Amino acid sequence: MTDHSVIPVKPELAQGNRVDAARRAEMAERAARDPEGFWREEAGRIAWMTPPTRIKNTSFEGDVSIKWFEDGVLNASVSCLDQHLAERGDQVAIIWEGDDPNSDSKVTYRELHERVCRMANVLRSLGVKKGDRVTLYLPMIVEAAVAMLACARVGAVHSIVFGGFSPDSLSSRIQDCDSTLLITADQGRRGGRTVPLKTNADEALRSCPSVKNVIVVRNTGGGVPMEEGRDHWWHTLSEAAAADCEPEPMSAEDPLFILYTSGSTGKPKGVLHTTGGYMVWASFTHELVFDYRPGEIYWCTADVGWVTGHSYIVYGPLANGATTLMFEGVPNYPGVDRCWQVVDKHKVNIFYTAPTAIRALMREGEAPVKKWSRQSLRVLGSVGEPINPEAWLWYYRVVGDERCPIVDTWWQTETGGILISPLPGAVDLKPGSATLPLPGVQPALVDGEGQLLEGAADGNLVILDSWPGQMRTVYKDHERFIQTYFSTFPGKYFSGDGARRDADGYYWITGRVDDVLNVSGHRMGTAEIESALVAHPKVAEAAVVGMPHELKGQGIYAYVTLTSGEEPSEALRKELVAWVRKEIGPIASPDAIQWAPGLPKTRSGKIMRRILRKIAANETDSLGDISTLADPTVVEELIGNRVG
Ligand code: WTA
Questions:
Q1: Is the preceding omega at residue 196 within 30 degrees of 0, hence cis?
Q2: CA proximity to 326, closest of 305, 340, 309
Q3: What Å distances lie between residue 165 and 139, 586, 589, CA to CA?
Q4: For the CA atoms of 490, 496, 501, 507, what is the dihedral angle to 10 degrees?
Q5: Residue whose CB lies within 8 A of the most ligand 1 atoms, among 385, 429, 510, 519, for a mutation test
Q6: Which atom of ligand 1 is nearest to the CA of 420?
């Protein structure tokens, strides 16, 4: 399956690159030898009110404390907006492309600055102060970026909840961080359908007493009830607000945002990122990895509800004065050629998407791609899950006409930005490999006992030392931060991913080694789906595992034990799928539900997921040792009733 062929840097295409192989090596060497000096210089890429003198103060031991640029003072919105006004105030900052191909708009840096200032004033007038949490539940519209930057401007900590999440998921995320204000829209649009955001928000807010005010963007114009005293129209408030706003001075280690992400146990964790290090990392990686050049049009297809949207639609590109394209829709609406149509329409130079989208488009053949010229494309990126060599090669040959380097970027919500990726024009490519760490990043592989592995090896992917964009803590739960990331292999950051390193030192990410699923590039904890299932009155017990899925990468396979007296039926299966969608959101819909009168458990009652994964993957000839099970006969029964 693995394709070892190397695609060397094409010198003619690398012309004008900021970083070539020699420069990359130089940067990596300097960052390793003199991290203080290296990062002091890189910090200069963003705007400081007081430049930092203390650069790195981090420890992965004991209580785990991570501080970068700690005596620096700045405001992220100034780096993204004010700093560009003199030089490129009239340059387009955001190109917005609607779900409907006939709707688009452009916002210059000057206009964006004004809109952010107005909204920042609105937030202040509603009592939002530095450190307060504001939840955003928005579609992919310009107001989402405005709202993020407005929070940053007043020092509020934003927590974005993906618009595809259910009211329950929204309310638990609001409750966890006690937001005082919610920003949402009447409705969203995706693939020709509307998403009832305000209705969902109203339902969520019934159990969120901390929220005193709701700001509602009139987006589709679909009528929604407004609660007197609590709900306010964005446009009314915004029009009445002043167009300039003093930015709040923030210490580098003041929080910028919280973003909830799934882990192997319990509820989603509030990943906390702070201001200085995150901004430096977002800017540094966006420029290096995409070889961003002034004037270029850059398009990342992610949603701002995920970390990719935070770092590579908003903060990184805007810090670098780029023109960033924000797309409201989906890759296959109204046709499967939508991406390439948009590329031609806006002359996109850099395109960054997920393997799941590439696989889905690949299935439609070359014709929809070839219909458009794609001449503007220069660099192609991939993120979110391992990209199989077949999809990689299709992306390279068909979409990029063998002209555009592919940057397969490995990173996580926790890492704030890209850690392992080729740099275009500087690193030879291997289809399916995220290749080499960025300068300043020290990945390593360890075995199950935490022993460092040398040379070509297969193991658990850890990072040995801190980088500026690293998450600082789990919101209000530092103990969980230490437990989750630094206890498995003490003194090292454990990513939760497995990886292989080949003889050239290239990393091949093999996927999660914990109970986290990656479904179409979306992270999901099996525990979350299980607790949604057992919340159904007819379900006694549930175990969820991932199964290989051609398009999604991983699908969701659920084993369900019904309460006594309940009979399995097709109607009940559908009911449970709908139930999970309602509890968590459509992205968590199980692909398969197998009725399981019994689950394979050890004598101490622990479910042996290894066996359940094998059955779901239809690899039943390699189940391994099942003699430790309390009742080995359940395995035969499960194999016999496998679904799919
Ligand atoms: C997976 C998304 C292989 C990985 C930015 C990681 C990848 C999880 C890649 C984080 C890649 C992300 N190759 N796997 N290029 N990029 N992953 O937090 O399992 O939503 O741990 O961040 O996605 O997902 P998250």
A1: no
A2: 309
A3: 12, 7, 12
A4: -120
A5: 385
A6: 15
Backbone angles phi, psi at 549, to 5 degrees: -140, 125
Contact 372, 400 (CB under 8 A): no
State the angle between helix axes of 633-640 and 609-616 in degrees (0 to 180), rounded to the nearest 10. Answer: 20
**CA–CA separation, 261 and 76 (whole Å):** 23
Average pLDDT over residues 22-29: 96
**How remote is the CA of residue 384 from the centroid of ligand 1, in Å?**
4
Residue of 438, 509, 512, 520 to mutate, ligand 1, most atoms within 8 A of C-beta: 509
Complex ipTM tops 0.85: yes
- The DSSP code for 31 is H
For residue 226, pLDDT beyond 90: yes
| Burial degree of 625 (CB within 10 A; 0-12, 13-18, 19+) | exposed
Whole-angstrom Cα Rg for the chain:
24
Which stretches of 441-586 are DSSP H helices? 478-486, 526-534, 570-583
Q: Read off the amino acid at residue 161.
A: V
How many A from CA of 518 to the centre of ligand 1? 8
E strand or H helix at 133 = strand 133-137
The tens digit of pLDDT for each residue in 64-97 reads 999 999 999 999 999 999 999 999 999 999 999 9
- Does residue 449 carry a pLDDT above 60? yes
- How far apart are alpha carbons 509 and 530 in whole angstroms? 26
- Beta-strand pair 92-97/255-261: unpaired
Return the pLDDT at 2. 46
User: What is the distance between the alpha carbons of residues 328 and 236, in angstroms, rounded to a whole number?
Assistant: 23
Give dist(CA 192, CA 186) in Å, integer.
16
Q: State the Cα–Cα distance between residues 497 and 189, nearest whole angstrom.
A: 34
Separation between Cα atoms, residue 275 and residue 75, nearest integer Å: 8
**For tokens 């070509």, what's the residue?**
456
**What is the atom index within ligand 1 of the atom nearest the CA of 509?**
3
What token pair was written down for 543? 């175990």
Which ligand 1 atom is nearest residue 495's CA? 21
Give the amino acid at 584: I
CA distance 121 to 244: 8
Q: Does any ligand 1 atom lie closer than 6 A to the CB of residue 523?
A: yes
